[in-house]
TrEMBL record:
It catalyses: AMP + diphosphate = 5-phospho-alpha-D-ribose 1-diphosphate + adenine. Catalyzes a salvage reaction resulting in the formation of AMP, that is energically less costly than de novo synthesis. This is Adenine phosphoribosyltransferase. Keywords: Cytoplasm, Glycosyltransferase, Purine salvage, Transferase. PANTHER family: ADENINE PHOSPHORIBOSYLTRANSFERASE, PHOSPHORIBOSYLTRANSFERASE DOMAIN-CONTAINING PROTEIN. Belongs to the purine/pyrimidine phosphoribosyltransferase family. It comes from Sphingorhabdus rigui. GO terms for molecular function: adenine phosphoribosyltransferase activity. Pathway: Purine metabolism; AMP biosynthesis via salvage pathway; AMP from adenine: step 1/1. The keyword Ligase does not apply.
Length: 178
């Protein structure tokens, strides 16, 4: 993980959100900065394996990262959606959050057998959503060898959990203690 202090400076820190003691890292302020957003996508694109075939983004902020990366790389984008958003035949996976469970889904047939899929999102914290994304892509027949994030909160262990599943993880910015 590079320092990318110039990008980190563009991320707004909101204390005590969504609950006391949490420092929320708001990437929307980075995305508002045209040059910062461009540098973010360029730096992430430089990390992508050259044999990647598809970019998968997790709803919702992951779409912002995935679509820009897919465009720059000349690849398609797979959307991993929340329940009730996809009209066709779909598969899904449930995962645990801090205060309950959630689910993500994708259309059947949107991943080809053994297709190499890059998983991206804006931030990785505990890793539940990202692990669910890996599981979902694998259910669809694809393989995830790499995951990229703008921000990692390493103390929450999500990146380590992905690595334990054989996924190489990189992020541009790390914030300790969150």
């Amino acid at each position: 993980m590079n320092s990318n202090a110039d990008l980190a400076a563009l991320i707004r820190n909101i204390p005590d959100y969504p609950k006391p003691g949490i420092m929320f890292r708001d990437v929307s302020s980075l995305l508002l900065d045209a040059e910062g957003y461009r540098m973010t996508i360029d730096r992430l694109a430089a990390l992508v394996d050259p044999d990647t075939q598809l970019v998968a983004g997790i709803e919702a902020r992951g779409f912002i990262v995935a679509s820009a990366l897919a465009y720059v790389l000349g690849l398609g984008q797979l959307m991993l959606r929340k329940p009730g958003k996809l009209p066709g035949e779909k598969i899904g996976t449930d995962y645990t959050l801090e205060y309950g469970t959630d689910r993500i889904e994708m259309h059947v047939g949107h991943v080809q057998p053994d297709q190499k899929v890059l998983l991206v999102d804006d931030l990785i914290a505990t890793g539940g959503t990202a692990l669910a994304g890996v599981d979902l892509i694998q259910q669809g027949g694809g393989r995830v060898e790499q995951a990229l994030f703008i921000v990692d909160l390493p103390d929450l262990g999500g990146a380590a959990k992905l690595r334990a599943q054989g996924v190489r993880v990189a992020s541009l910015i790390g914030f300790d203690g969150d």
